[in-house]
Specification:
The chain is α/β, with parallel strands linked by helices. It has helices spanning about 1-25, 30-35, 35-50, 160-170, 170-180; strands spanning about 60-65, 70-75, 80, 95-100, 105-110, 115-120, 130-140, 140-150. Strands 2-8-7-4-5 form a 5-stranded mixed beta sheet, with no helix packed on it. A hairpin with a 2-residue loop joins strand 7 and strand 8. Helix 4 (about 160-170) runs antiparallel to helix 5. The longest helix is centred in the first third of the chain and has 25 residues, at about 1-25. It is globular, with a radius of gyration of 24 Å. The relative contact order is 0.14. Mean pLDDT is about 75; it is low at about 5-50.
Length: about 180
Protein backbone atom coordinates (compact mmCIF):
# COMPACT_ATOMS: atom_id res chain seq x y z
CA UNK A 1 0.00 0.00 0.00
CA UNK A 2 2.85 2.32 0.83
CA UNK A 3 4.30 1.76 -2.65
CA UNK A 4 1.09 3.01 -4.27
CA UNK A 5 1.32 6.29 -2.38
CA UNK A 6 4.99 6.86 -3.31
CA UNK A 7 4.30 8.29 -6.79
CA UNK A 8 1.66 10.60 -5.32
CA UNK A 9 4.01 11.81 -2.61
CA UNK A 10 6.79 12.29 -5.17
CA UNK A 11 4.50 14.26 -7.48
CA UNK A 12 3.31 16.48 -4.65
CA UNK A 13 6.87 17.02 -3.50
CA UNK A 14 7.97 18.10 -6.95
CA UNK A 15 5.05 20.48 -7.39
CA UNK A 16 5.78 22.12 -4.02
CA UNK A 17 9.39 22.64 -5.08
CA UNK A 18 8.36 24.30 -8.32
CA UNK A 19 6.04 26.65 -6.44
CA UNK A 20 8.51 27.53 -3.70
CA UNK A 21 11.52 28.19 -5.95
CA UNK A 22 10.08 31.13 -7.93
CA UNK A 23 8.85 32.78 -4.73
CA UNK A 24 12.28 32.37 -3.18
CA UNK A 25 14.00 33.90 -6.22
CA UNK A 26 11.74 36.96 -6.21
CA UNK A 27 13.00 37.99 -2.78
CA UNK A 28 16.66 37.23 -3.52
CA UNK A 29 19.16 39.83 -4.60
CA UNK A 30 21.73 38.51 -7.02
CA UNK A 31 25.26 39.81 -7.05
CA UNK A 32 26.03 41.08 -10.59
CA UNK A 33 29.37 39.26 -10.73
CA UNK A 34 27.65 35.95 -9.92
CA UNK A 35 24.96 36.53 -12.54
CA UNK A 36 27.59 37.05 -15.23
CA UNK A 37 29.61 33.97 -14.25
CA UNK A 38 27.82 31.57 -16.65
CA UNK A 39 28.32 34.07 -19.48
CA UNK A 40 32.01 34.36 -18.68
CA UNK A 41 32.42 30.59 -18.61
CA UNK A 42 30.55 30.26 -21.92
CA UNK A 43 32.74 32.98 -23.43
CA UNK A 44 35.90 31.23 -22.29
CA UNK A 45 34.73 27.92 -23.73
CA UNK A 46 33.84 29.61 -27.00
CA UNK A 47 37.25 31.31 -27.15
CA UNK A 48 39.00 28.04 -26.30
CA UNK A 49 37.17 26.29 -29.13
CA UNK A 50 38.05 29.09 -31.55
CA UNK A 51 41.61 29.34 -30.27
CA UNK A 52 42.15 25.79 -31.48
CA UNK A 53 42.76 27.50 -34.81
CA UNK A 54 45.27 25.62 -36.83
CA UNK A 55 46.31 28.26 -39.29
CA UNK A 56 45.03 29.39 -42.63
CA UNK A 57 43.87 26.96 -45.32
CA UNK A 58 45.86 27.01 -48.58
CA UNK A 59 43.05 28.75 -50.48
CA UNK A 60 39.62 30.30 -50.01
CA UNK A 61 37.70 27.19 -51.10
CA UNK A 62 39.41 24.79 -48.68
CA UNK A 63 37.39 23.84 -45.60
CA UNK A 64 39.48 24.04 -42.43
CA UNK A 65 38.49 21.05 -40.33
CA UNK A 66 39.63 22.98 -37.24
CA UNK A 67 36.71 25.39 -37.44
CA UNK A 68 32.95 25.09 -37.24
CA UNK A 69 32.24 28.33 -39.08
CA UNK A 70 29.85 28.18 -42.03
CA UNK A 71 31.59 27.54 -45.34
CA UNK A 72 30.75 29.37 -48.56
CA UNK A 73 31.61 28.15 -52.05
CA UNK A 74 31.12 29.23 -55.64
CA UNK A 75 31.83 25.99 -57.50
CA UNK A 76 31.33 22.69 -55.65
CA UNK A 77 34.12 21.18 -57.76
CA UNK A 78 36.65 23.54 -56.13
CA UNK A 79 35.78 22.60 -52.53
CA UNK A 80 38.52 20.76 -50.64
CA UNK A 81 39.11 19.59 -47.08
CA UNK A 82 42.20 20.82 -45.26
CA UNK A 83 43.93 20.08 -41.98
CA UNK A 84 47.57 20.79 -41.14
CA UNK A 85 49.90 17.83 -40.68
CA UNK A 86 50.24 18.34 -36.92
CA UNK A 87 46.46 17.95 -36.49
CA UNK A 88 46.22 14.78 -38.59
CA UNK A 89 46.49 11.27 -37.15
CA UNK A 90 50.15 10.81 -38.07
CA UNK A 91 49.47 7.61 -39.98
CA UNK A 92 49.92 6.92 -43.66
CA UNK A 93 46.20 7.36 -44.33
CA UNK A 94 43.47 9.21 -42.45
CA UNK A 95 39.89 8.10 -42.65
CA UNK A 96 37.25 10.79 -43.14
CA UNK A 97 33.50 10.38 -42.81
CA UNK A 98 31.20 13.06 -44.26
CA UNK A 99 27.52 12.90 -43.39
CA UNK A 100 24.69 15.07 -44.74
CA UNK A 101 22.71 15.92 -41.60
CA UNK A 102 19.44 16.30 -43.53
CA UNK A 103 19.19 13.16 -45.66
CA UNK A 104 21.74 11.16 -43.59
CA UNK A 105 23.78 10.22 -46.67
CA UNK A 106 27.27 9.17 -45.59
CA UNK A 107 30.55 8.92 -47.48
CA UNK A 108 33.79 7.38 -46.19
CA UNK A 109 37.09 8.62 -47.64
CA UNK A 110 40.76 7.82 -47.33
CA UNK A 111 43.10 10.82 -47.10
CA UNK A 112 46.74 10.03 -47.74
CA UNK A 113 49.22 11.81 -45.50
CA UNK A 114 51.16 12.93 -48.60
CA UNK A 115 48.14 14.99 -49.78
CA UNK A 116 47.79 18.47 -48.26
CA UNK A 117 44.10 18.71 -49.22
CA UNK A 118 41.36 16.28 -50.12
CA UNK A 119 38.78 17.07 -52.82
CA UNK A 120 35.14 17.08 -51.79
CA UNK A 121 33.73 13.71 -52.94
CA UNK A 122 31.65 13.72 -56.11
CA UNK A 123 29.28 11.13 -54.61
CA UNK A 124 28.29 13.61 -51.86
CA UNK A 125 26.57 16.48 -53.71
CA UNK A 126 26.72 19.72 -51.76
CA UNK A 127 23.32 21.20 -50.95
CA UNK A 128 23.42 24.90 -50.12
CA UNK A 129 22.14 25.65 -46.61
CA UNK A 130 22.77 22.11 -45.41
CA UNK A 131 24.99 21.11 -42.50
CA UNK A 132 27.56 18.36 -42.97
CA UNK A 133 29.17 16.41 -40.18
CA UNK A 134 32.83 15.79 -41.03
CA UNK A 135 34.74 13.37 -38.85
CA UNK A 136 38.44 12.61 -38.94
CA UNK A 137 38.74 9.13 -37.48
CA UNK A 138 41.86 8.88 -35.33
CA UNK A 139 43.22 5.91 -33.48
CA UNK A 140 42.79 7.90 -30.25
CA UNK A 141 39.17 8.83 -30.94
CA UNK A 142 36.96 10.79 -33.26
CA UNK A 143 36.86 14.54 -33.78
CA UNK A 144 33.48 15.46 -35.35
CA UNK A 145 32.98 18.85 -36.95
CA UNK A 146 29.68 20.21 -38.26
CA UNK A 147 29.81 22.79 -41.04
CA UNK A 148 26.89 24.45 -42.83
CA UNK A 149 27.64 25.17 -46.47
CA UNK A 150 26.25 28.00 -48.62
CA UNK A 151 26.65 28.49 -52.35
CA UNK A 152 27.43 32.06 -53.36
CA UNK A 153 24.85 33.14 -55.98
CA UNK A 154 26.30 33.28 -59.47
CA UNK A 155 25.32 36.93 -59.95
CA UNK A 156 28.03 37.96 -57.45
CA UNK A 157 30.92 38.19 -59.88
CA UNK A 158 33.53 40.30 -58.06
CA UNK A 159 35.51 39.18 -55.02
CA UNK A 160 34.31 42.26 -53.13
CA UNK A 161 30.64 41.40 -53.73
CA UNK A 162 31.26 37.73 -52.88
CA UNK A 163 33.11 38.64 -49.69
CA UNK A 164 30.27 40.89 -48.55
CA UNK A 165 27.70 38.14 -49.18
CA UNK A 166 29.91 35.59 -47.42
CA UNK A 167 30.25 37.82 -44.35
CA UNK A 168 26.47 37.95 -44.08
CA UNK A 169 26.35 34.13 -44.03
CA UNK A 170 29.06 33.83 -41.36
CA UNK A 171 31.88 32.73 -43.68
CA UNK A 172 34.14 35.34 -42.08
CA UNK A 173 37.58 33.65 -42.42
CA UNK A 174 36.92 33.02 -46.10
CA UNK A 175 35.65 36.55 -46.72
CA UNK A 176 38.79 37.91 -45.07
CA UNK A 177 40.94 35.71 -47.32
CA UNK A 178 39.02 36.86 -50.39
CA UNK A 179 39.46 40.53 -49.39
CA UNK A 180 43.21 40.02 -48.91
CA UNK A 181 43.52 38.39 -52.34
CA UNK A 182 41.77 41.25 -54.16
Amino acid sequence: MLLLHSPLILALGLSINTVIIPQTLENTTVDQSQAELPLLIAGRLDRRRRSDDCGTPPHVWAISLCQTDPFCYVDPNEVELWLPDDKRSGGMVDRIVIKNTVNRQKVKLRWRSSEATLSWPMDMPIQSGTAYSITLKKSRGHSPNQITMYQVPSYYRTDTDRAEWMMQRGCVPQADMLDQNS
